[in-house]
From TrEMBL:
<keyword id="KW-0456">Lyase</keyword>
<dbReference type="InterPro" id="IPR010139">
    <property type="entry name" value="Imidazole-glycPsynth_HisH"/>
</dbReference>
<dbReference type="InterPro" id="IPR017926">
    <property type="entry name" value="GATASE"/>
</dbReference>
<comment type="function">
    <text>IGPS catalyzes the conversion of PRFAR and glutamine to IGP, AICAR and glutamate. The HisH subunit catalyzes the hydrolysis of glutamine to glutamate and ammonia as part of the synthesis of IGP and AICAR. The resulting ammonia molecule is channeled to the active site of HisF.</text>
</comment>
<feature type="active site">
    <location>
        <position position="180"/>
    </location>
</feature>
<dbReference type="GO" id="GO:0016829">
    <property type="term" value="F:lyase activity"/>
</dbReference>
<keyword id="KW-0315">Glutamine amidotransferase</keyword>
<feature type="active site">
    <location>
        <position position="178"/>
    </location>
</feature>
<feature type="domain" description="Glutamine amidotransferase">
    <location>
        <begin position="4"/>
        <end position="194"/>
    </location>
</feature>
<dbReference type="InterPro" id="IPR029062">
    <property type="entry name" value="Class_I_gatase-like"/>
</dbReference>
<protein>
    <recommendedName>
        <fullName>Imidazole glycerol phosphate synthase subunit HisH</fullName>
        <ecNumber>4.3.2.10</ecNumber>
        <ecNumber>3.5.1.2</ecNumber>
    </recommendedName>
</protein>
<comment type="subunit">
    <text>Heterodimer of HisH and HisF.</text>
</comment>
<comment type="pathway">
    <text>Amino-acid biosynthesis; L-histidine biosynthesis; L-histidine from 5-phospho-alpha-D-ribose 1-diphosphate: step 5/9.</text>
</comment>
<keyword id="KW-0963">Cytoplasm</keyword>
<keyword id="KW-0368">Histidine biosynthesis</keyword>
<keyword id="KW-0808">Transferase</keyword>
<dbReference type="GO" id="GO:0000107">
    <property type="term" value="F:imidazoleglycerol-phosphate synthase activity"/>
</dbReference>
Length: 205
């Protein structure tokens, strides 16, 4: 079972459908016990970093999510990716999950914010698992971006500045764009995440 973390700020229905279309049993939950039973943890998100952290704390999920990320395949999507980092500065300073070193600040670009629409991926660090996604288009909606070390970058996008689009540290992944809104490319990217972490999360259910 794949668990989608429900903290009241995610586009959970579309994310659920995307994983169901890949043949997985999916549950939307904020129950720590149910999350512990899952093979994979999905952290979606739409909204502000600060509000998301407050909701996660209110539901008693902060420490459990940190612990689960050490044990299971874990992916943050859009705001969920930003929450993987140590801190964010949207509406003031807030501490994130600190699963990947770095912080989240407003996009410094001459282009209009938010960054909305289709943008091409540039694969970083010669990552062989994602090489076929070079120049593929995915769908972004955001005004803040992660700033992290190059070693954690799987893919970037150009929006008048370099934006981390896919990040990874061990079995923890993040996608700044919406794979569930990115057509076949988005679905294929989710498949790569599932395949790359299969030995950690167990077999498909």
């Amino acid at each position: 079972m794949i668990a989608i973390v429900d903290y009241g700020m995610g586009n959970v229905a579309n994310v659920k459908t995307a994983f169901q279309n890949l043949g997985y049993e999916v549950e939307i939950t904020d129950s720590v016990e149910r999350l512990k039973m899952a093979t994979h943890i999905i952290l979606p998100g739409v909204g502000s970093f600060k509000a998301a952290v407050e909701e996660i704390n209110e539901r008693g999920l902060l420490e459990p999510l940190r612990e689960l990320a050490n044990e299971k395949p874990f992916i943050g999507i859009c705001l969920g990716m930003q929450l993987l980092f140590e801190r964010g500065y949207e509406n003031g300073l807030s501490n994130g999950l600190a699963l990947i070193p770095g912080e989240v600040n407003i996009i410094e670009t001459e282009y209009i914010l938010p960054h909305i629409g289709w943008n091409q991926l540039q694969i970083e660090n010669n990552n062989p698992s994602f090489a076929t996604f070079q120049d593929k288009h995915v769908y972004f909606v955001h005004s803040f971006q992660a700033r992290t070390n190059k070693e954690y970058l799987v893919a970037t996008a150009d929006y008048g500045t370099t934006i981390p689009a896919i990040v990874q540290k061990g079995n923890v992944y993040g996608m700044q764009f919406h794979p569930e809104k990115s057509g076949e490319t988005g679905i294929e990217l989710l498949k790569v995440f599932l395949e790359e972490t299969a030995s950690v999360g167990g077999q498909m259910e």
